[in-house]
Input
Amino acid sequence: MCRLFGAISHGPVYYELFEEFADLAVMGNTPRGGADERGHRDGWGLAFFRNGALVDHVRGVGSAQDDPQYFKAAWRIAKVNTERRAGERLIVLAHIRRASSGTPVGLEWSHPFIETKGGRTWAFAHNGGPARVAHGEEEKVGDSHVLFRTLLGNLEGPDPEQVAKATKATVEALRAEFDYSGLNFLVSDGQWLHAFREYQENGDYYTLYHDDFGEAVLMCSQPILGMRDNLLLGGYLLSVGPSLEVVKTRAGGGDADGGL
Output
């Protein structure tokens, strides 16, 4: 249970975006029936691609709002705006964590996670969780790791159609084996940024919004810094490419909550 933020940009990725996202550690929506005062303070992480290459990956334990390392990493990313050349492309994935019941809190559990497949580096951040995933004893593997590795195992290539196909196969496999609250995720190989929304409960918590600012497309669990409330429809994968082209594909069960 977490908050997600993603950006793919040909222009600035403003420092204020990271500030407002960190505020969700305390001010962000929480699941119905949850202990609101706990917020999303169980970890944080940032992954940053520049022109397709992963150049920064930083994670921490505790609340992003209270951790100077979060803001140092955010400033490094924002500072690129003063150094970049015309035509450069930036992709950011950010995550603040509210640990699922029974899941440990520690650096290794903080998203985004990084894996390599087919010579490409993939970053992944998740909000939700299968309800009955056993955590590995020899290797620390949680529900989000299982989702990421299942997705990569189903992935035959990096194109949006292939990511959508892998997402559909992953959702079907998890639905057949587990109950889950939500399978919202962001994933990127540095070329495309993909956002997926799927849930079985608490649809007003497992939200994912997107907005096109012309030189950047933003995605977030809750609108921040002037984002319009364009809600991604459950069951759909939103893929944004190197030229900021947008592809939407049905890849899950779906819902009828009025999203786009």
Remarks:
- The chain has a mean pLDDT of 89.
- The first strand starts at residue 2 and ends at 9.
- The domain at 2-250 is CATH 3.60.20.10 (Glutamine Phosphoribosylpyrophosphate, subunit 1, domain 1).
- The chain has one domain: 2-250.
